[in-house]
Amino acid sequence: MPKDLMFILPYRADMLAQLATTLGKAGISIAGCAGKEFGPEEIVHLLVDDAAGARRAAEQAGFVVRGERDVIVAPIEDRPGALGQLLGQIADAGVSADLVYLATNSRVVIGVVEDLERAQAALRPAGR
Q: Which tens digit of pLDDT belongs to each residue from 31-58?
């Protein structure tokens, strides 16, 4: 299952490039990425299939993984309203999303605060 890894990096032009290069050299594919500057730091979320390998490679290079969590990775159509529809299904199940970003291959990454399984069930087609 893909995992979201969170890093807090110094806000410098080369830091995210260094992290991505480090993971690439270790054979870790980054399937999604989101980042936001927050004062002198940047909060970065990376979607990876091999969380243990990514953590090991990052830590060996001096980066610190500040968080690791299961997330929903769902297909999303490239059309107006698609994200609202997906998030609405999760909200209708009584679950709050606290992290959302796009991933490769027209997918969306959704982190939820409460019940991951209930949120995943809300996105399944009826009868599945």
A: 999 999 989 999 999 999 999 999 999 9
The pTM of the full predicted model, rounded to 2 decimals, is: 0.89
**Long-range contacts (CB closer than 8 Å, 24 or more residues apart) made by 53-62:** 53/26, 53/27, 53/28, 54/5, 54/23, 54/26, 54/28, 55/5, 56/26, 57/22, 57/23, 57/25, 57/26, 57/28, 58/5, 58/7, 58/19, 58/22, 58/23, 61/18, 61/19, 61/22
pLDDT of residue 111: 87
Residue listed under structure tokens 């980042």:
35
Q: For the chain, how far is it from start to end, CA to CA, in angstroms?
A: 19
**Token pair of 24 as six digits:** 């690439």
